[in-house]
From TrEMBL:
GO molecular function: ubiquitin-like modifier activating enzyme activity
Domain of life: Eukaryota
Lineage: Eukaryota, Metazoa, Chordata, Craniata, Vertebrata
Species, as recorded: Nothocercus nigrocapillus
Record's protein name: SAE1 enzyme
Length: 116
């Protein structure tokens, strides 16, 4: 489900329905130069391709090159990952008056507060 130009209450309600029924939910809007986008994909599984790390050859003398892990771009492995997305209601209900919030506040874009 994709929403735009909706009130906050409508977005929260539709996201709750989508989350309950395992339906992916996207919402966003633009206000002049500012905009936002939110995605609730529920439990999302995906596969990530990772480059294998080549191991150092045994019997090679110690030196600066032997301590560094070498990447072999020709060999890759597929790693399955899972991410649990939060609901819009939870994302909008963050408590900003704690010690943990101070660090998060520095990483949060000012546009988040425009949505509020």
């Amino acid at each position: 489900v994709c929403l735009t130009c909706c009130s906050r209450d409508v977005m929260v309600r539709i996201d709750q329905l989508c989350h309950k029924n395992s339906i992916k939910f996207f919402t966003g809007d633009v206000f002049g130069y500012h905009g936002y986008m939110f995605a609730d994909l529920g439990e999302h599984e995906f596969v990530e391709e990772k480059t294998k790390v080549a191991k150092a050859s045994p019997g090679v003398e110690d030196g600066p090159d032997t301590k560094k892990a070498k990447l072999d771009p020709s060999e890759t492995t597929m790693v399955k990952k899972r991410v649990a997305f939060c609901q819009l209601k939870e994302a909008l209900a963050v408590e900003w008056s704690g010690e943990k919030a101070q660090a998060a506040l520095r990483r949060t874009a000012p546009d988040y507060f425009l949505l509020q």
